[in-house]
Structures are given as C-alpha cells and as structure tokens.
Amino acid sequence: MAKITLDNLAHSYLPNPKGEDDFALKELNHDWEDGSAYALLGSSGCGKSTLLNIISGLLHPSQGRILFNDNDVTAAPTAERNIAQVFQFPVVYDTMTVRENLAFPLKNRGSDPAYVASRVQQIAQMIGMEAMLDRKARGLTADAKQKISLGRGMVREDVNAILFDEPLTVIDPHMKWELRTQLKSLHREFGHTMIYVTHDQTEALTFADKVVVMYDGRVVQMGTPQELFERPEHTFVGYFIGSPGMNLLDARVDGRTAHVEGCAIDLGAGYRPLSGRVQIGVRPEYVRLTADPAGMPVRVRRVEDVGRHKIVRADFFGTEINIIAGEGESLSPDMNRISFAPGSINVYADDWRVAPEGAQADPMGRAA
C-alpha cells in the first residue's frame, strides 16, 4: 500500500505546448492517503485515464513528479511500481483456465502453492466464478472475461495500489452492483490503496471513500459523496453529481440577498461583493413547489414519476428548474411557485463556489 503524491504534475500530448489549453492534464498537487479508496469521476476526455496511466507508469508526464510513499517513481517502469491495473476491456490468457489466469500473478512471483490455491479460491468466490475455475477462458462471454481480469488485478495482497480503468463497462447491471459491493468489502478487509476511474456517478459514489471530480483536465473537487452533494466547489460538480443535477440561476448578490429576475432570495448568510458571472445553485431536493404567492413564479411543464419520487420540470423565465417531490406529496395546478430550503443555496462566481463571509478554507485551499 502507498500514499500517492502528485507534485506539480501536468501532461500534454503535444510536443511543444504553448499554454494551459494545450495540456490534457493541468497542474495537480495532491496527496492521496495510503489505504484509501478513490474514484476519479468526470465526463469523457476530462483527463481521468491520462492521470491513471501516469500513476501506473504507462505514461510519462510532461512535467512534475509522482511519488509513492515519498519515493520518486516518475521514471520508474510499471513493473517496479508494484501496482495492479484492471483495464476497461478484458485482458486474459485464452489458452489458460480461469484458475490459471487468476493464479498467474502469484505464480509469477513464486508464491507458495498452498497460498496460491487458497487465494484463487477466495477471489473466484468473490467474482462468482467458482464453478468455472477449470474452464478455458477461450469461449467465455465478454463479461465473464472481464470478471477474470478484475479478479487477477485483485489477487495480490502486497501491491502498492490497485488501479481500475472503467472496469465494469462490459458487466451486466446486476453483476455491476455485486462487484462494486465486493470491491468495497475487499478494500475494508485488506486496506489496499484503490483508484477507480469512471464516468458513472453511481459507481463512484458507492465505491469510494473520496471522489475526485475532474473537469477540463483539472481536479475541481475532492471530497466525500456528501460533500460533493451538499457543497459543490464548482458548477460542474453541481451539474454532474445528482440526478437531476443542481439548478443554476444567474443572480446579483447583495450581502445576504440574491436578486433573480426581480425576486429577492434570502441566502442565510452574508457575501462579499462579487464580480464576473454570479450564480446561485440549489439542488432539486431542496426546491419546493408551492401555491404560496410569496414564492418565485414558475410554469410547470411536466411531472415524471420515477417510483421513489417525482421530478417536476418547470420553467423560470426561460431557465429550466428541476424539483424533486416525495412520492406521496400531492401536486395541484395552482402550485406554480417555488421556494428554497433555508441553508441550501450555494453561491458561485465564474463557476467557483464562494463561501459566506467568515468561513474557513477547506483542504483544497478554497473557502468552506
């Protein structure tokens, strides 16, 4: 297991990058704790796989260093980093049995045969392939092969880190849930440092101790699922986390009041004067549809019943507003106003969250 340090790390696929826009991975400075489980979350092309490949040694960064337990491994090949990596598509030996595939990393390091047999049995049970141990990998389905690849990545207990690059892409939905649960259990039992790349927020939020959200080649927030939900540090985090994502409204902020389309909204705290594009963000869970004339006027366009709750899609002066109402909550035609739950409003200037006056800085250097 290892603490992983990203020191002034950045990467460009261009030979002579001229500016920040030429970098696929913009400058990063972070410490990832020994034994923690992290998820790299973001849309396609945001730099997740680039960062993972730098950590694994498959890619050399354009600048900066990567350290394992404070030892510089930037120039070290993958084999010397003592990591396991599971890729998006299955990598298995077709001529070997499932048992031989799972045992290969251990046998390659001269492990005791009794330990190899025991560990293979344990991993096979975890991935649900005990009945297939003596079958050749050739001819198995794509998701079965990916389970072998996943198992082989986890069979060693002595690795510095286990890296997963969207490993459940070809796995059926029910098995995805089971494997995520097993991965979490494995992490609790053995305490490996795990880094899991995905664009699926459900995978990230259910797997990780901390989620690292990436946008346009940079880390915009690293935190627990609750922190990402309650206090998105960037508008992208608010949009990307949650279903539906955060509602964002252009506003003018004056002290503790936001002015939006002629409506005055109490922010619950005071803010310094702001410049640039100013917005307020409110989760749909904290928006209430009401008939109270004191609320903000909306036009309800449709109501979607998704079983656990209803999603109300409304229009507020040309901006879509999403509202989540409880399954048992009654809705009526005269409910054409909205209000926000106290303490639920975030304020943003040029996409970055602004803290109320007097708030302390968080570990990423922004105000809490």
Provide a descriptive summary of the structure in words.
- With 368 residues, the protein is an alpha+beta fold.
- It has two domains: 235 residues, 3-Layer(aba) Sandwich (Rossmann fold), CATH 3.40.50; 110 residues, OB fold (Dihydrolipoamide Acetyltransferase, E2P).
- It is built from eight helices and 22 strands.
- It has a six-stranded mixed beta sheet with strand order 6-7-8-3-9-10, with helices on both faces. A four-stranded antiparallel beta sheet has the order 2-1-4-5, with helices on one face.
- β9 and β10 form a beta hairpin.
- The longest helix is centred in the middle third of the chain and has 18 residues.
- The chain is globular and about 75 Å long.
- The two termini are 31 Å apart.
- The C terminus is likely disordered.
Q: Secondary-structure blueprint of this entry?
A:
Blueprint: E1 4-11, E2 25-32, E3 37-41, H1 48-56, E4 63-68, E5 71-72, E6 83-86, H2 98-107, H3 113-126, H4 142-154, E7 161-165, H5 173-190, E8 193-198, H6 201-207, E9 210-215, E10 218-223, H7 225-230, H8 235-240, E11 247-250, E12 252-260, E13 263-271, E14 278-282, E15 287-290, E16 296-297, E17 299-305, E18 309-316, E19 319-326, E20 337-340, E21 346-349, E22 352-354
Parallel strand pairs: 3-8, 3-9, 6-7, 7-8
Antiparallel strand pairs: 1-2, 1-4, 4-5, 9-10, 11-14, 12-13, 14-21, 15-20, 16-20, 17-18, 18-19, 21-22
